[in-house]
Amino acid sequence: MNYPNGIKKEHNTSPITYRNRGMSLENDINESNEYYREIDKAYIYKKPTPVKIVKVNYPSRDKAVITEAYYTIPSTTDYNGLYKGKYIDFEAKETKNKTAFPLANIHSHQINHIKNIYNHQGIVFLIVRFTNLNETYLLSGKDFLDFTKQADRKSIPHSYFKEKGYLLKDGYRPRIDYLKVVDTIIGGI
Question: How far apart are CA 97 and CA 148, in angstroms?
Fold first, then answer.
């Protein structure tokens, strides 16, 4: 492609890759959590997925490769930690769907976990990013559970997020200031 002043730009011929798809929201939350820790505001971490390693190939001492592993127990939600003396727990999901968030993206054991945290008065919520709309919402655990109890739908409409959720604005530091909304939900503790 030719630009003014004789500048030439080559076309990018690298193949399309789907690696790390869905990681944008996770990266934004991880950066936000790192910032919260740096300023001593909250201590929230990504939970590791419990995996049992079965086989490892050792081509050399410093290059071990896991060749077989299994999930040991179903994982609960993505993040947990402490904020202002309260337990905080949430799931983060992205969808390309413009009209709804498919409930199939959240497993029944995760819904039970959200219910348990809510029943024990922990702070629990979902952060859902509609990637094609460039919108990220925080939906309280209560509103999420209310929807799953009363609706026979297989997805949460985007309109429900607009009505019940909180639109999260992108920023620099933190990338997503979801704790500002958490303060609103829990009464500004």
Answer: 19
Q: Structural domain tally of the chain?
A: 1
Predicted TM-score of the model (pTM):
0.77
For residue 24, give the H/E element and its range. helix 23-38
Buried residues in 96-124 as b, exposed as e (16+ CB within 10 A): eeeebbebebbeeebbebbbebbeeeebb
Q: Is the pLDDT of residue 189 over 50?
A: no
pLDDT at 21: 41
Q: In this structure, what CATH number is given to the domain that contains residue 42?
A: 3.40.1350.10
Number of neighbours of residue 42 by Cβ within 10 angstroms: 19
> Which SS3 state, helix, strand or coil, does residue 159 take?
helix
pLDDT greater than 60 at residue 13: no
Whether residue 61 lies inside any domain: the answer is yes
